[in-house]
């Protein structure tokens, strides 16, 4: 597993405080536009975060799985 990217803010990593990951809501339209642009321009950060797990709604998951099955295979 690749190491996660972290932002250095000048504090000691071992300060005893635990990093809490927060959730952020974003519209799918905005997310797909950002990802599409990054993929087109072959941005390295896309492959850096490719193994990250994301949480999506059950409805969106169902739509994506149906679409995946309908796509013609290469």
Brief descriptors of the model:
74 residues; mainly alpha; 3 helices; 0% strand
The quaternary state of the protein chains shown equals single chain
The helix tally amounts to 3
What's the helix-strand series?
HHH
The whole-angstrom Rg is 17 Å
The portion of residues assigned to helices is 40-55%
Biggest sheet statistics:
none
* Number of β-strand runs: 0
Give the amount of beta strand, in percent: under 5%
Low-confidence stretches: none
Average pLDDT over all residues: 84
Shape estimate: extended
Distance between the termini: 28 Å
Quickly give the structural class.
mainly alpha
In short, what is this structure?
By secondary structure, the chain is an all-alpha fold. It is 42% helix and 0% strand. It contains three helices and no strands.
Task: Lay out the secondary structure.
Blueprint: H1 28-40, H2 44-48, H3 58-70
How is this structure best described in words?
This protein has helices at 28-40, 44-48, 58-70. It is mainly α and 74 residues long. The chain has a domain at 28-70.
């Amino acid at each position: 597993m690749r190491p996660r990217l972290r932002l250095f803010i000048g504090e000691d990593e071992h300060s005893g405080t635990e990093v809490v990951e927060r959730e952020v809501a974003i519209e799918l339209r905005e997310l797909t536009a950002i990802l599409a642009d990054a993929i087109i321009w072959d941005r390295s950060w896309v492959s850096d975060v490719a193994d990250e797990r994301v949480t999506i709604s059950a409805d969106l998951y169902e739509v994506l799985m149906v679409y995946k099955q309908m796509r013609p295979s290469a």
